Every structure is written in C-alpha cells, then in structure tokens.
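Bench log. Compound arrived from synthesis this morning; before running ITC I wanted a structural hypothesis for how nicotinamide-adenine-dinucleotide sits in the protein. Inputs:
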Amino acid sequence: MTIGVLKEPLTETRVSLLPEHIGILKKLNVDVLVESNAGEKAFASDEKYVEAGAGIDSRQNVINKSEIILTIHLPSASEVESLKTKVILGIFQPLYNVDFVKKLNVSNITVFSIDMIPRTTRAQSMDVLSSQANIAGYKAVLLAANLFPRYFPMFMTAAGSIPPAKVLILGAGVAGLQAIATARRLGAVVEVFDTRPAVKEEVMSLGAKFIEVEGAADASKAGGYAVEQTSEFLQKQKDRIAASVQKSDIIITTAQIFGKKAPILLTEEMIAKMKNGSVIIDLAAATGGNTELTKNNETVIYKGVSIVGNSNLPSTMPYDASKMYGKNICNFLQLIIDKEARPDDPVGRGKLNLNFEDELVKGTLVS
Ligand code: NAD
C-alpha cells in the first residue's frame, strides 16, 4: 500500500508528515509518496524525504497512486472527483464544514477527521487538536510580549523599578495551560479562570492564581470537554472576570465548547475599561472569538487595546507543529493499517484494516 502526502494550500506552512516520520511508516510495510515541495515551508526538502525512503511525485500522481492520503486542510472542491474511493486524513472540522463533508460522502471518499478523535487516554498520542493548541498557547504569550509596550518580568534597576506584567488567562485547557507556563517563565503574574474547577490544581502547580466562581455545571462526564453553562452562572462569572480584566495588562482567551460558537467572555464595555497599551490574544477567533470585538485573522485596536485574532498560530512554528502533527498521524495510522502482507501481493506490503468497532476509528470517521 502507498500513503501519499499532499502539499498544503499557500497560506499554510505546515506539512502532514516530515522525513523523520517515514521510518515509522516503513515499519508498517507501506510506501510513502510525497508531493514535490510539500515540506518546503516546514524546512523539509524533497532530498530529505528521499533520503528517508520516500518517493517524490506530482500532486496528481500522488493522488492516483496512493490508497491513503494525508493532508491538514480540506482538499479543494475541484479535487473531490479524483479522490474517489481513497481514504483521506486531516483536520476537516466537519461540524463547521458540514456541506463539504456531505459532498465527500456522496463521492464515496473515506474521510477521517482527526480533530474528532475522542479525548480519551488511549487517544492522547493521536490528539492533533492538543498538539497544535499547545503551540498556540505558547505563541500567544510570545505574540503578546512582542506587542506589549512594557516588560513581562519585574526589575529593580538603577533607572527605577519595573512591576511585573499582569496576565489573565481565560480557559485552562491545553492552550491555556501552555500559555500559563510560558507567561510564568517570562516572569508575569498570572491569574486564570476556567469553568471546570478540576483544573484548579494544575493551574496552581504552574504558579498561577485560580479565580473561583461557584455554581458551574458539571463537566466531569463530557469526555474532557467543557459543557454549556446557565445564564445566571455566566452573569456571575462575567462580574468576577470584569474585576480582573480591569487590572490586567495581557489577556489570553482560549474558552471553547466543542463544536459550538465560542462563548463571549469579554464585552466591549469591559475592554473599554482596560489600560492603554494592553493586549488581548483571542485564540478562539476562528469559532467567533471570546470577545465582542474580535475579528478572525485581524488585529483590532480599540481605545488603545490590541485585540489579536490570529487563528493559525501553529503555522508560525511549522517545524515543531509538523513534527507533532506527523507523529499524531503515524500513531493513528497504526490503528488502520495491518502490517501483514496481502496474500495476493507479491511485494508483501501492509494493507488497510478498518475496524469500526474501535471507538477511535469510528469516532474520527466522518464520511
Ligand atoms: P480545550 O477544550 O482543551 O480548552 C478550552 C478550555 O476552555 C477548557 O478548559 C474549558 O473548560 C474552558 N472553557 C469553556 N467555556 C469557558 C468559559 N465560559 N469560561 C472559561 N473557560 C471556559 O481547548 P484547547 O485545545 O486548549 O484550545 C483552546 C482554543 O484555542 C480553541 O478555541 C481552539 O480552537 C483554539 N486554537 C487556536 C489556535 C490559533 O492558532 N489561534 C490554534 C489551536 C487552537
């Protein structure tokens, strides 16, 4: 069997598999064919893929010759026809791209959207949303530090003292926890809010203060995701957060409810009360944003406060983002490839083995 790796659209710098992953797939008895220049922006040349044992070919040949196709973004509408009967893996956000996924279904394409993988312990090594959100949390803090007109750490110098920056992080999931760790490493004082009280210990172990609001809905049975909260709770939460917002220099928002529009945590009124020069990095911009003023993939300056809605932060670190994404994908491929040869295959190569009894295979299959 051959696995094909496609080059991503122009705005993407990541690639779904790096040369260092080829060896893992070779152990599954498969061949790997990579579209020419697919890894260029992630600093992986065609030569490196060849050295690792992959072949290089044109896009059309990669599609034609491969049974399984790896990509990060959805293929273009004009390519759907050529993908018939293929298996394709990527981050397709089927809950937002319903019509396109329906089209793939009608076209008889087997689609695994790896962002749909259940957040169970067994799936951790395949969790692409987590590996990419980790980067987003890290980069959000660096971006904020770059835009902020002051220091992060505290300094006592002959030219006067500098107080530490006050960072508020809303949502302590994967991105939020990494943002806390990064802001702490830079010397900021960090406050954190999340509707899941279970994260309090983790937050405190990273050296941040956890803001508590009583009366949150129980999320313990939601498979690691947040649940929707009552309007009374949300009001109480808004009031408590408003007090912290006014004092904060930097706010990083990461609150999301899987498959739904992001909750609004910061209103225009709250932002208007922030200090001049403050920075908000809204990681939830792609799903509507956590502030009333966020614009996806734009920076809005409102009364001296920068509100950054950059939705593709993993792309700003293409090498490590691809390294982690590729490893997640290799781990998933081990679930759907049987390395024993087909009896009728003289070359003796691994074969596709789709076990829909497996909750991870079933959970990610969207067409
Ligand atoms: P996650 O599900 O692990 O964490 C989200 C956290 O938000 C959870 O801990 C949840 O309890 C909390 N939350 C939900 N509602 C809340 C509320 N009303 N108030 C406070 N907290 C609340 O998600 P993640 O993987 O950490 O991703 C976080 C966000 O970052 C998502 O919106 C994701 O799409 C986004 N993201 C952005 C980029 C980028 O480049 N901008 C990259 C990757 C992920």
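What the model suggests: The two ends are 21 Å apart (CA to CA). The mean pLDDT is 93.
ITC booked for Thursday regardless.
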